[in-house]
Design a protein that fits this description.
By secondary structure, the chain is an alpha+beta fold. The protein contains 14 helices and 11 strands. The strands form 2 sheets. It has a 7-stranded antiparallel beta sheet with strand order 4-3-2-1-7-6-5, sandwiched between helices. Strands 8-9-11-10 form a 4-stranded mixed beta sheet. A hairpin with a 6-residue loop joins strand 1 and strand 2.
């Protein structure tokens, strides 16, 4: 009856280091089982399953639970049929709707296969690395409207687990910091949007396109507004240097990377939304963290905000982080903070003299409002 029950694929989950891992998938009568290379096991019952389509080739089958905390995915062409058979028809309606879309997109897969076949004459290795490198370069050439669409889709899909703060005094304080920094952004054309989230977690992040999220826990531990501005400058730098999209481009399959070169950004949209809605916002490479530090210091200096504020915040987290509730939320994703404090100070010594100006913010009032 069942042609195949074992498949190769992967899992998205915020319980996985990095948010994503390859996995061996087994279809059984009770549902979909997945085991990562690290031995982590995931299980989704057929009766609770939501099926979707997407991925780098627009033919990836995504199997999700109701709260989207776990997604098991596979692009094996036999996977839909086996999924239908093992579920005894429970998923037939969802799979039938997706099959129509698959047929409509079949020409794209065939076209990419032909391109890849011709390029193999030149050499498989040259093809693979050439397209991947060119795909990364294509990300840098994309219009900022793409960043914004990805940021909005990702934020809408996120479950931050806490309510948003709308107190004008609190939000205006963060907005004032962003307004000072934004004219000095490395990527022009971004429209920055501020969200303050009620959470004890000491965290902040910036999505592509300029959507900035600051947790109240970060505000509570900061001794002065300039320290929060230092963190925001670092996170804005990740967005303006397009580090998030670079991370996504590294995850693109060969077909999607090639499609990106031809102007097809659909694969980028789908994979970016999947990655950014997980708790991996701050998971950047060491090189990207260093670049964000350097760019953040430049922005702070250009905006007339004391760049030492960023180093001060690292110091606070180094001393008090373990004692704070969820205190390592931000610093835990930014390793080697002692060396980075030294780098901030070293870079500052190379900059031209600047007169720094503080913020006209009643910081005690801001902090008292989030503690209510």
């Amino acid at each position: 009856m069942h042609d195949q029950t074992f498949f190769s694929g992967g899992v998205f989950s915020d319980t996985i280091d990095g948010g994503r891992a390859g996995a061996d998938i087994e279809l059984q009568l009770d549902g979909v089982h997945a085991t990562t290379s690290a031995g982590e096991r995931f299980f989704l019952r057929f009766s609770e399953l939501n099926v979707d389509i997407g991925g780098y080739n627009d033919r990836m089958i995504f199997c999700r639970n109701a709260d989207r905390s776990v997604t098991i995915f596979c692009d094996d062409k036999k996977f839909p049929k086996s999924l239908s058979e093992l579920s005894c028809g429970v998923l037939d309606e969802q799979l039938h709707l997706k099959k129509k879309k698959l047929k409509a997109q079949a020409w794209q897969g065939r076209g990419m296969f032909m391109v890849a076949s011709i390029a193999m004459v030149v050499g498989l290795f040259a093809l693979y690395f050439g397209i991947k490198v060119a795909g990364a370069a294509a990300v840098q050439a994309l219009p900022v409207s793409v960043d914004r669409q990805i940021g909005e889709r990702s934020y809408d899909a996120m479950n931050l687990g806490r309510k948003e703060i709308h107190d004008a005094t609190v939000v205006d304080a963060i907005q004032q910091m962003v307004d000072r920094l934004s004219p000095h952004a490395a990527l022009q054309g971004l429209e920055f949007e501020v969200h303050v989230i009620d959470s004890e977690e000491v965290n902040a992040f910036a999505l592509p396109g300029g959507i900035i999220v600051v947790y109240t826990g970060l505000i509570e531990v900061a001794e002065r507004p300039e320290q929060v501005a230092g963190v925001i400058a670092h996170e804005i730098s990740h967005a303006t240097l397009r580090h998030g999209l670079q991370r996504v481009s590294q995850s693109l399959g060969l077909t999607a990377a090639a499609g990106l070169l031809l102007g097809d950004v659909q694969g980028l949209f789908v994979l970016a939304t999947e990655l950014f809605q997980l708790a991996t916002i701050n998971s950047y490479s060491r090189g990207q963290e260093t670049a964000a530090d350097t760019e953040g210091v430049r922005m702070l200096h250009a905006a007339g905000i004391d760049p030492l504020s960023l180093a001060e915040f690292f110091e606070i987290m180094k001393k008090e982080g373990p004692e704070l509730p969820d205190g390592l939320g931000w610093i835990s994703t930014h390793p080697e903070h002692e060396a980075r404090i030294m780098n901030v100070r070293s870079q500052l010594a190379t900059l031209a003299p600047q007169e720094y100006k503080g913020f006209d913010i009643d910081w005690d009032d801001v902090k008292s409002r989030i503690e209510k």
